[in-house]
Amino acid sequence: MHIQLKNIHKYFGSVHANNDVSLTIEPGQILGLLGENGAGKSTLMKILSGLICKDNGEILINGEEQNLNSPADALRLGIGMLHQDPHDFPSMTIREDLQIWNQRSDRTRTDATDWQALMNIQEDLGFNLDLDGSVGDLTVGERQQLELARLLWLGVELLILDEPTTGISALQQEVLFSALKKLAGQGKTIIFVSHKLEEVKELCSRAVVLRKGCLIGEREAPFDENDLVKLMFGRQITRTRTAHARTRDVCMSVQNLNIEDFRIAIENVNFDLYAGEVIGLAGMEGSGQRQFLQALAGMKQPSSGHIRFGDEDLFGRNCYEYQKRGIFYVPTARMEEGLVPGMTLEEHYILSDCEKKIFIDSRKSHKTTEERIQRFNIKGRSATYSEELSGGNQQRLLLSLLQDPAQLLLLENPTRGLDIESTNWIWSILRERCQAATSIIFSSADLDELTFYADRILVFFSGRISEPLDSAGLDEERLGRMIGGKDWPK
Amino acid sequence: MNEFLTNMAGVVAAATPVVVAVIGETFSERSGVINLSANGLIVLAAMVGFAAAYTTGMVWVGLLAGFVTGAAAGLLISFSSISLKQSQVAVGFILSLLFRDLAYFLGTPFMVLPGPTVNRFAIPLLKDIPILGPLFFDQNVLVYFSYVLIAMSYYWIFHTRQGLILRGVGEQPISAYSRGIDVNRQRYLYTALGSGLIGLAGPMYSLSIKAGWNGTMTGLDGIGWIVLSITIFGGWNPLRGSFGAYLFVFLQWLGLALQSYWTSVPSQVLQVAPFPLMILTLLFVNIGDTEWVTRMMARLPRGVRGGFYKLFRFLRKPPPASLGVPFERE
Predict the structure, then answer these.
(1) Quick count: other Cβ atoms within 10 Å of Cβ B320?
(2) Where does A143-205 show beta strands of DSSP type E?
(3) Residue A199 DSSP SS3
(4) What range does the domain containing A178 cover?
(5) Which residue of A has its CA nearest to B170?
(6) Distance of alpha carbon A90 from its chain centroid, rounded?
(7) What number of C-beta contacts closer than 8 Å exist between A and B?
(8) Which helix (H) or strand (E) holds A455?
(9) Distance from the A167 Cα atom to the nearest Cα atom in chain B, whole angstroms
(10) In the predicted model, what is the mean pLDDT of residues B32-49?
(11) What confidence score (pLDDT) does residue A8 get?
(12) Which of A127, A340, B80, B204 allows an S-S link to B17, with CB 3.0 to 4.6 Å?
């Protein structure tokens, strides 16, 4: 499929999300669309898939101008998009999920239950989904595989993937990449949206870069990484690892801890966490990391065991007791679990202040707000609503809300979906805290991030937890195998 | 025994409009639109249905008028909540009051007139089945219609592709939309259909169970609120919802029946009892979610805990994820 975008403009209020973007995509090509968070990549792709409408410009498909007013129009033309959060139905079974589509928008088939064709596609791409399973039980990676297979099943010719590697395991990424290469070989056109350079380097034959809504550059493979970084951010970016801050004092000691819930059972966890140490939790999404972090924060009740902190055993206490002792939990879902939509930054700071006064000391709150915004480099003002911030700035806001002094920070995927610059910045702040003897436990799907920032790593596999592994000199390949459930002691 | 059977047949008949209204509300809420005006709507449709049947002398015209009244109200609610993006709760409450008062005002000319009623029609053969026959098959056509409706709506929602789309629209409208489904059209359709069924419950009262129109004395005020809560108790499932409706009417009957035995208990207590009982049921259905229960459960031995988890999971049905939220593309 030959696609031509001509002078596309899109405004959201006063924000010019796409500014005069023109782009041509040849059939059978894997095009990389690069850009930092908030550069307008998703907006452009949503326009191409009909989910939102352009304000200005033309879209030509195979040389003909098309009006894409809804996803139904795009699907009829054979354009399908895999969204960052898969657009599926977690409460349904896979078979049910697959049957929801508009028959009038389909070009090739009217039979809604040609399961054999679907199984063939699955097999061809190396996926292994049980049609009778529930969508809600799948990992993010599997949900993507489901969407991908579904779109191909509907006969899509152009596939758009928006940040598909966010939140999936290394193994799943491998499967995904080989599937995409295969599809391109079969003549499908693929647009791969990402902020991760290595992925674009590995996969794409051509890359275009968006910055602040404008298309500012185009490169053919082979790519020069430094060159692309400069295009994306307008300058060079390097990351630095600050000195080791780990001490010999035990901050928290976990003994024989058992955690259970509907989904998963974690048994017999034992480890000591040192003050100033960073422990990384590796493993596929949903292997128990979330339950583990929440149990250590007092938000989830473990069924038995000991959590020794200082001289006390915190087992069975509620999360306020944990917070009083400086143990804080920061969830993945920033907007849903961490921040309050509809509240300004200043109101967030007032809320987190926990002062037991009836009236608000507005002078003081102004001061703290200004100070924190500056210190945490948040791109927003005190009257900005939290939902208006970009992902990276929301994460900064979340971290800036944590009280001092913190003894232990429990961070769930702290840099999920953030570009290199924001990631580096957030880790510099976190490392600073470690110097002040704060310990950190964080989960991540990024092996590179784990081995780079963590002192020790715990690997999770369906509720099993490995011994702490020293990250210095740890083989990434071995880590990958363990995440996939291999190399475990019997 | 015979007397008890007759009473139970009465319970089945009296529960029929509640069943139909609950299924109507279920359709509407499954698509993501709450029709909070059910209470006023049933009263209004009862009046309109009676007036239409009285004027024409034909029962079916009255029933149709009730359905049309409901469907029109449904369109009004869809328009305000989908097209104008107004709060479904605020609009629903006001409409509920408005419909009720409108019914009392417009219904004045039709007060205490003898009107047509739906005839009883025993189904041959089926009515001779012991126990079940007199209980279920010696009723009027409306009751038989409700049986068909229960089965059909259940099949439609859970076993057809259209039903899947309906559920999808109420759960994740954005997903449905990106698969080419016109979310708002679906919502308009199902809100109109669902509200039509709620409207149909009105003339089911005024032409059958509480025949006639007696203004504020008609005694319909309040049913609609019960319908809303039974819809939740029923987990947005026509089978469970119908069970809830029968249970509620049975409890009401029980309250009346027990009066003659427990003369020492004030009659008001027994009449009111079904309402707190419904609240308790709702409470029990959702109790598995509360923190103190999870905390308590953590101390139980594993086998017992597993059993409780299963029970709670069976009881608790989460509402359609996008209930009451207008759909926007972005």
Answers:
(1) 25
(2) 158-162, 189-194
(3) helix
(4) 3-233
(5) A89
(6) 18
(7) 74
(8) none
(9) 19
(10) 95
(11) 92
(12) B204
Q: Does residue A344 belong to any structural domain of this protein?
A: no
CA–CA separation, B166 and B173 (whole Å): 10
Q: Which residues of B touch A302 (CB under 8 A)?
A: 298
**Strand ranges (DSSP E) for A342-418?**
408-412
If one counts every other C-beta atom within 10 angstroms of the C-beta of residue B205, the result is: 27
Cβ separation A105–B180 shorter than 8 A: yes
In terms of Cα–Cα distance, which of A9, A31, A27, A26 is closest to A18? A9
Nearest chain A residue to B319 by CA distance is A91
The residue ranking higher by pLDDT, A465 or A108, is A465
**Same structural domain for residues A22 and A146?**
yes
pLDDT at A230: 82
pTM of this structure: 0.80
pLDDT computed for residue B277 by the predictor? 78
Angle at A398 between CA A392 and CA A400, to 5 degrees: 105
A142: CATH: 3.40.50.300
For residue A88, which residues of chain B lie inside 8 Å, CB to CB?
Answer: 172, 175
3-state SS, one letter per residue, for A267-328? EEEEEEEECCCEEEEECCCCCCHHHHHHHHCCCCCCCEEEEEECCEECCCCCHHHHHHCCEE
Nearest CA in chain B to A259: B298
Task: For an interface test with A, give the residue of B158, B162, B179 to mutate (most A CBs within 10 A).
Answer: B179
- A72 and A139 share one domain: yes
Q: Answer whether B180 sits within 8 Å of A262, measured CB to CB.
A: no
Catalogue all structural domains in chain B, each as residue range(s) with its CATH number.
2-265 (1.10.3470), 273-317 (no CATH)
What is the predicted pLDDT for the residue at B106? 94
Q: What's the half-sphere exposure (Cβ side, CA atoms, 13 Å) at A15?
A: 11
- Kindly report the nearest CA distance between residue B223 and chain A, in angstroms: 31
Q: Is the pLDDT of residue A110 over 70?
A: no
pLDDT beyond 70 at A381: yes
Give yes or no for residue A104 having a pLDDT over 90: no
* A4 SS3 class: strand
- Give the best-scoring range by mean pLDDT among A41-45, A225-229, A377-381: A41-45
Question: Which residue's structure tokens are 């003894």?
Answer: A407
pLDDT, average across residues A74-101 = 89
- Which ipTM was obtained for this model? 0.81
pLDDT in tens, A243-278: 566 677 888 899 888 887 766 788 888 889 988 889
Chain B from 118 to 177: CB within 8 A of any A CB: 161, 164-165, 167-168, 171-172, 174-177
* For range A389-400, the mean pLDDT: 82
